[in-house]
Specification:
The complex is a heterodimer of chains A (331) and B (337). In chain A, 73% of the residues lie in helices and 2% in strands. Chain A is an all-alpha fold and 331 residues long. A two-stranded antiparallel ribbon of chain A has the order 1-2. The N and C termini of chain A lie close together (6 Å). In chain B, 35% of the residues lie in helices and 22% in strands. Classes of the chains: A mainly alpha (331), B alpha/beta (337).
């Protein structure tokens, strides 16, 4: 078990290394001179200013050296800039944003809680709502409820965030004032305002992506209900409710946990469209702006972070498997 | 006193897209406590459907069941779902063909036995239930029950799993145990052990056993009575000694001659029954077995036109559903041998 985890962590580190190298190279494949980008409009920039910026952001070193410095920054911190005027950037240092001239870690530190809040709520909504619908559908197969649920989940699956999101915004915020306008308040400040401001993104994302969970859990549940051990549970005289939950659902939920874990990892990289629609300053919004602005340190950081989330989510899901299914042995 | 289990004219039908499946079409038998009835037949003969009907395990919305299935005087067919549920596991229990798939893979063996006990003994504490589970594991011959109780089904061997399954079925001391092909998925050497175990436990618990199998060897080891089923109906019914030694139905002959014997001529050819089991949606007219029967009396005979009823033989030894005259069957039996 320990060996397996160590092996997986090393493998994850290798993945991240490859991604970081690839992103870093991409950085320099961009035709613009980063210093010109930082400076703004290239024509109005004096040569002296460009040189100053190149020094300030450490862009004069050869690429491998820059990469090594970058990695050094992540693990032990580094000094960036001209020898006479260095800026100290403590570990984990992801460099300075070209656009904002702030430490990338600070920017990420502001954006990550927003995305985290959106994603955690949305995933919870998706799984709870989706699995409930799927389970009831499976138990009432062929009834009106089942058909309705399947139909609605199809509508959900074929809707887009930028469509449903705006409709909900108009209906519940602009027209009726039923919900507070979406926005981010730190949970530590005011939990109620936190939840209130996130409700719309949660509902929008949750509804659209719950369809996958509803369909998957319906299919899983139907399959599990025909398993021998469910018949055994009934033969014992177990009441229906317990047969369905303790025996059938317990077995049907395994693949759903997998998908939820992987979804979580993938979403944490940034829910770009949702953040744009609801104007929430999360990772997604920052990364899309960073791409537009050629703000490579932020692009690099968000890409690395997204990769890290996916790698970690994969590992966690695999470890969870051993808890859920005692037959699974890792090694 | 009436026998513990009495099934009278049981009929089970499923409505499917292709038509109505008459899975069981008028079956009657009785089993008393301490006795074992073996129900024998090919797949699709209705033997498993019969047992599931007694346990009340068919989906009521999709199944039409008529007739009576009395368990301790209570008619399972007429009772509502909740009343049958309370009988299940307590008064009647069932073990299945493949214990690996019949036990829940995610729970320990002990937990599953404890659960079975506590459903019907809600007043029992955790410790008492665990002790009971330990006792049962010991009684079905599982070594080191204290260690085994916390293991998962996949950590057991096939034979041990079936023993655990039996322990779970008997944990509430049921008066009826239905064993649906309990040894089919096991090694031959383990089969005999499980059958011995069942016989021993029956002597101890004094329960009625219905043993469903396609294996006449199994039946000959443990059954007192035998019911041979074909196409959803009983075709021969009597004491195991009579049905196995002096079978009177051509289908039973076919079953017997397709099984090798240890004591007979090792070079003797096994004779398979030609053809395949009939469709239960569209049963052959008359005797359902007639298209496969090499002794049938011809195209316009009762074999093709009339469904034979189970009639007692002249000496009353067994009941047979066959249009052949008894004298003819007896002489043919000599030839078959």
């Amino acid at each position: 078990m320990v060996r397996y985890v160590v092996k997986r962590i090393l493998l994850g580190a290798l993945t991240l290394f490859v991604i970081s190298v690839a992103t870093f190279l991409l950085f320099f494949a961009v035709p613009n001179n980063p210093a010109e980008v930082i400076c703004g409009n290239g024509k109005s920039c004096s040569q002296a200013r460009i040189q100053m910026l190149e020094e300030r952001f450490g862009l004069n070193d050869p690429i491998p050296v820059q990469y090594a410095n970058y990695m050094k920054g992540i693990f032990v911190g580094r000094d960036i800039g001209a020898a006479n005027d260095p800026r100290h950037c403590a570990a984990p240092c992801l460099g300075y944003s070209f656009r904002y001239d702030d430490e990338v870690t600070d920017i990420i530190g502001q954006a990550l809680p927003v995305t985290l809040s959106i994603v955690i709520g949305a995933i919870t909504f998706q799984v709870v709502f989706g699995v409930s619908i799927g389970m009831i559908s499976a138990l009432r197969r062929g009834t009106v409820f089942d058909r309705l649920a399947v139909g609605i989940s199809l509508i959900g699956a074929s809707t887009q965030v930028y469509f449903l999101g705006y409709i909900l915004l108009i209906l519940f915020v602009y027209e009726t004032g039923f919900l507070p306008p979406p926005g981010y308040t730190p949970i530590t400040e005011n939990p109620l305002a936190w939840a209130g401001g996130l409700l719309l993104p949660w509902i929008t994302l949750g509804f659209i992506f719950s369809a996958v969970y509803a369909r998957l859990s319906r299919a899983q549940m139907i399959e599990t209900l025909s398993e021998d051990f469910v018949r055994t549970a009934r033969a014992k005289g177990l009441p229906k409710r317990q047969v369905y939950t303790r025996h059938a659902l317990r077995a049907a939920i395994t693949p759903i946990v997998t998908i939820a874990g992987l979804d979580l990892g993938a979403y944490l990289g940034g829910t770009v469209i949702t953040e744009t629609v609801f104007g929430m300053k999360g990772l997604g919004l920052f990364s899309i702006r960073a791409v537009e602005d050629l703000d490579m340190p932020i692009v690099m950081a968000t890409v690395l972070l997204a990769a890290l989330f996916v790698v970690v989510a994969n590992l966690v899901v695999d470890l969870l498997y051993t808890v859920i299914d005692p037959r699974v042995k890792l090694g | 006193m009436a026998p513990y289990v009495e099934v009278r004219d049981l009929r089970v039908r499923f409505t499917t897209e292709d038509g109505v499946v008459r899975a069981v079409d008028g079956v009657s038998f009785a089993v008393d406590r301490g006795h074992t009835l073996g129900i024998v037949g090919e797949s699709g003969s209705g033997k498993s459907v019969t047992s599931l009907a007694i346990m009340g395990l068919h989906d009521r919305r999709r199944t039409n069941i008529t007739g009576q299935a009395l368990v301790g005087g209570r008619d399972v067919v007429a009772l509502d779902e909740e009343a049958v549920r309370r009988l299940r596991g307590r008064d009647m229990a069932m073990i299945f063909q493949d214990p690996l798939s019949a036990l829940h893979p995610y729970y320990t063996v002990g937990r599953q036995i404890i659960e079975a006990y506590r459903i019907h003994h809600p007043e029992a504490g955790k410790r008492e239930a665990r002790q009971r589970a330990l006792d049962m594991l010991g009684r079905v011959g599982i070594p080191q029950p204290a260690r085994r109780i916390d293991q998962y089904p996949h950590e057991f061997s096939g034979g041990m799993r079936q023993r655990a399954m039996i322990a779970m079925a008997l944990v509430n001391d049921p008066d009826l145990l239905i064993a649906d092909e309990p040894t089919t998925a096991l090694d031959v050497t383990v089969q005999a052990q499980i059958l011995d175990l069942l016989a021993g436990l029956q002597a101890e618990f004094h329960s009625a056993i219905i043993l469903i199998t396609h294996d006449l060897g199994v039946v000959s080891q443990v059954a007192d009575q035998v019911l041979v089923m074909y196409g959803g109906r009983g075709v021969e019914h009597g004491s195991a000694a009579r049905v196995l030694r002096e079978p009177q139905h051509p289908y039973t002959w076919g079953l017997l001659s397709s099984v090798p014997t240890l004591h007979g001529d090792a070079d003797a050819d096994l004779v398979p029954i030609k053809g395949s089991p009939p469709s239960l949606i569209n049963l052959p007219s008359g005797c359902a077995f007639h298209p496969r029967c090499r002794y049938q009396l011809g195209p316009a005979s009762p074999c093709v036109t009339t469904v034979p009823e189970l009639e007692p033989t002249r000496d009353g030894g067994q009941r047979v559903a066959c249009h052949l005259p008894e004298t003819q069957r007896r002489s043919m039996l000599e030839v078959v041998r």
